[in-house]
């Protein structure tokens, strides 16, 4: 089989497994705010944030921010970017029901992401290792999201494309990819940082790896462009609502049930979350330990095998999450753009290692769906 046929086979097999697990949860699901008891797959695959995307496709974004009884910005559509609902709306315009169209778009984008990811891993790994990296991507604990009405699959596709172009140093082609990505899922700012670090590394290694002036200018320009387009959505929200902090206040509304309405102070949310979940001193010790542990992981031989640019992305995105994200039940989904690290775990060829990783990943799918997707009464653990 050619490489692309193997990737397609892996992806389809993984989705069959995930959908079977989801159907079992749907069979056990009681009536809730979104569905009746025992919903069908397509209906069940469009709860939680899926309903926000459907709302955006139907009604767009509010020009006046909703306000709570105590005067704070409430949860609203500005937290969700427009590319995914825009694409799904093309299908609904020709008569395909939203629940079906959103899943089809997500599944198709997930397959495309798997194909591009294989090409990316092939730059660093042997064929069997690159394919197993795709296996790990397809059966990852949060991989059922690629069959839900969420924008994650499209985000994975744009990220994989951007990393492939960066590794191949095709800087100009990054402009359209980053543009679409910036309006699909957050991450363009982290990629801007990775591009800046990439420029610095190429500058310091220019004696053994030539860095012509044209490439210097182009890479720097694309890094600046990524930073600007990464800030475009908050600016658009400001322009449409007249509120400078419309986007950040909207995002902060989702953490208010945990710690109340607070200002966004970079690099503090993980410690705020640690204090809320664990108290002190563990609320401070654990975030520091996670940072140290992740940094140590990035310098291991398996991760170094993936090259400098992949590691720059992993470090940049991790720093982005550390700076702005408040860890709660959606943490696992927000960690998903770190998926290129799957290539490191694909390096060992032991059948026991590989079989164990697949089994553990599928078991963690069940755990993630139970914690985040299954609704048990009043549920405050969105995926």
TrEMBL record:
The keyword Cell wall biogenesis/degradation does not apply. GO terms for cellular component: mannosyltransferase complex; membrane. The keyword ATP-binding does not apply. Pathway: Glycolipid biosynthesis; glycosylphosphatidylinositol-anchor biosynthesis. GO terms for biological process: GPI anchor biosynthetic process. It is a multi-pass membrane protein. It is found in: Endoplasmic reticulum membrane. Keywords: Endoplasmic reticulum, Glycosyltransferase, GPI-anchor biosynthesis, Membrane, Transferase, Transmembrane, Transmembrane helix. It comes from the Bacteria. The chain crosses the membrane at residues 7-26, 100-118, 130-151, 171-197, 217-240, 285-303, 310-326, 355-375. InterPro entries: PIG-V/Gpi18. One of its GO terms (molecular function) is alpha-1,6-mannosyltransferase activity. PANTHER family: GPI MANNOSYLTRANSFERASE 2 (PTHR12468:SF2). This is Glycosyltransferase RgtA/B/C/D-like domain-containing protein. The lineage of its organism: Bacteria, Bacillati, Actinomycetota, Actinomycetes, Micrococcales.
């Amino acid at each position: 089989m050619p490489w692309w046929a193997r990737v397609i086979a892996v992806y389809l097999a993984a989705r069959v497994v995930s959908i079977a697990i989801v159907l079992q949860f749907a069979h056990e699901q009681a009536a809730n705010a979104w569905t009746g008891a025992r919903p069908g797959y397509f209906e069940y695959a469009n709860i939680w944030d899926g309903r926000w995307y459907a709302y955006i496709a139907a009604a767009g974004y509010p020009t006046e921010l909703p306000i709570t009884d105590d005067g704070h910005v409430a949860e609203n559509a500005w937290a969700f970017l427009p590319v995914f609902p825009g694409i799904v709306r093309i299908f609904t315009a020709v008569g395909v029901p939203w629940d079906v169209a959103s899943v089809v778009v997500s599944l198709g984008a997930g397959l495309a992401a798997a194909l591009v990811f294989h090409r990316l891993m092939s730059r660093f790994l042997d064929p069997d290792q690159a394919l197993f990296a795709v296996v790990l991507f397809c059966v990852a604990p949060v991989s059922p999201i690629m069959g839900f009405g969420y924008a994650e699959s499209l985000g994975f596709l744009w990220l994989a494309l951007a990393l492939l172009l960066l590794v191949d140093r095709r800087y100009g082609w990054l402009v359209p990819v980053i543009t679409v990505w910036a309006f699909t899922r957050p991450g363009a700012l982290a990629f801007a940082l990775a591009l800046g670090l990439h420029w610095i590394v190429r500058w310091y290694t220019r004696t053994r790896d030539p860095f012509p002036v044209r490439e210097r200018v182009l890479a720097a320009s694309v890094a600046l462009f990524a930073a600007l387009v990464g800030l475009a959505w908050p600016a658009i929200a400001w322009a449409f609502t007249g509120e400078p902090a419309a986007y950040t206040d909207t995002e902060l509304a989702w953490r208010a049930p945990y710690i109340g309405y607070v200002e966004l102070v970079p690099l503090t949310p993980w410690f705020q979350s640690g204090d809320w979940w664990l108290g002190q001193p563990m609320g401070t010790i654990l975030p520091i330990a996670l940072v140290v542990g992740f940094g140590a992981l990035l310098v291991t031989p398996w991760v170094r095998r993936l090259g400098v640019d992949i590691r720059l992305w992993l470090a940049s995105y991790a720093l982005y999450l550390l700076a702005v994200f408040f860890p709660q039940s959606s943490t696992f989904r927000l960690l998903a753009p770190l998926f290129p690290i799957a290539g490191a775990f694909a390096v060992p060829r032991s059948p026991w290692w590989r079989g164990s990783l697949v089994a553990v990943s599928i078991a963690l799918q069940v755990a993630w769906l139970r914690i985040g997707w299954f609704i048990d009464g009043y549920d405050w653990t969105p995926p």
